[in-house]
Amino acid sequence: MKRVVGCGLWVVGMAVVAWPQVAEHHPPRSAEEYARVLNDPQRDGWQKPHEVIAALALRPDEVIADLGAGTGYFARRFAQHAAKVYAIDIDEELLKRVRAGAPANLETVLAAPDDPRLPEASLDTVFICDTLHHIANRAAYFPKLKKALKPGGRIVNIDFYKKPLPVGPPPGMKLSEEEVIAEFKAAGFRLVKTFDFLPYQYFLVFQADRALR
């Protein structure tokens, strides 16, 4: 299990956990403790999952992948609105927790750090929350996400603003909104929508540029 410690941030597999900074010197010691942090009800106050899902406007026939799903914080919610959900993570212990009591339309995928292992042309939406800044060599990773999208599919990225915040990683570990937009543009995507209701995170929606597909 990969664990990176830094200023209130814990990385478990591909899932980013905002840990209170006052607890910086008392990290979780087991998958169970990590799961409690991931599923902390206080997270709802700033992550606003219901508002996020409403903004996504998922269709009943939607196929969505939650990249860096962790314990399924968003994936389980997506399963109530979409036809098919892939919960993707590089930590099998966390995926076991996703599978426990999961609905039939939620499938886990054990990814590699450099490959999401998604079926080609299968997804309407790739959802990435608090995870993108931990993916190495994103220039090589983005084309794999593009191949997994259906024509007209989208990539949604939510991540922490690049400034000091009471949750999330220190600014030096973050990607700014401008950096993310530039990286997606270089990979052949265009920004099609933004939302600004999250207090600590930007919320960006991209689609592949048809001329570059």
Oligomer: single chain
The end-to-end span amounts to 35 Å
Beta-strand content estimate: 25-35%
The CATH architecture can be given as: 3-Layer(aba) Sandwich
How large, in whole angstroms, is the Cα Rg?
16 Å
Helix content: 25-40%
Question: What would the principal axes of the Cα set say about the shape?
Answer: globular
Number of helices: 7
> What is the H/E order?
EEEHHHEHEHEEHEHEE
Overall structural domain count? 1
Query: Looking across the biggest beta sheet, what order are the strands in?
Result: 6-5-4-7-8-10-9
Mean pLDDT: 85
Write down the CATH class: Alpha Beta
Sheet with the most strands, sense and barrel status: 7 strands, mixed
The number of E-state strands comes to 10
Write down the CATH topology.
Rossmann fold
CATH homology-level superfamily: Vaccinia Virus protein VP39
Q: Stretches where pLDDT falls below 50 for ≥5 residues?
A: 1-28
Coarse structural class: alpha/beta
Can I get a quick summary?
The chain is an alpha/beta fold and 213 residues long. 25% of the residues lie in helices and 29% in strands.
Describe this structure in words.
The protein has 213 residues and is an alpha/beta fold. The protein has a single domain (3-212), classed as Rossmann fold, CATH 3.40.50. 25% of the residues lie in helices and 29% in strands. The chain has 7 helices and 10 strands. The chain has helices spanning 31-38, 43-47, 49-56, 75-78, 92-99, 138-148, 177-186, and strands at residues 3-6, 9-12, 15-18, 63-67, 84-89, 106-110, 123-129, 149-160, 189-195, 201-208. Strands 6-5-4-7-8-10-9 form a 7-stranded mixed β-sheet, with helices on both faces. It has a 3-stranded antiparallel β-sheet with strand order 1-2-3, with helices on one face. Strand 5 (84-89), helix 5 and strand 6 form a beta-alpha-beta unit.
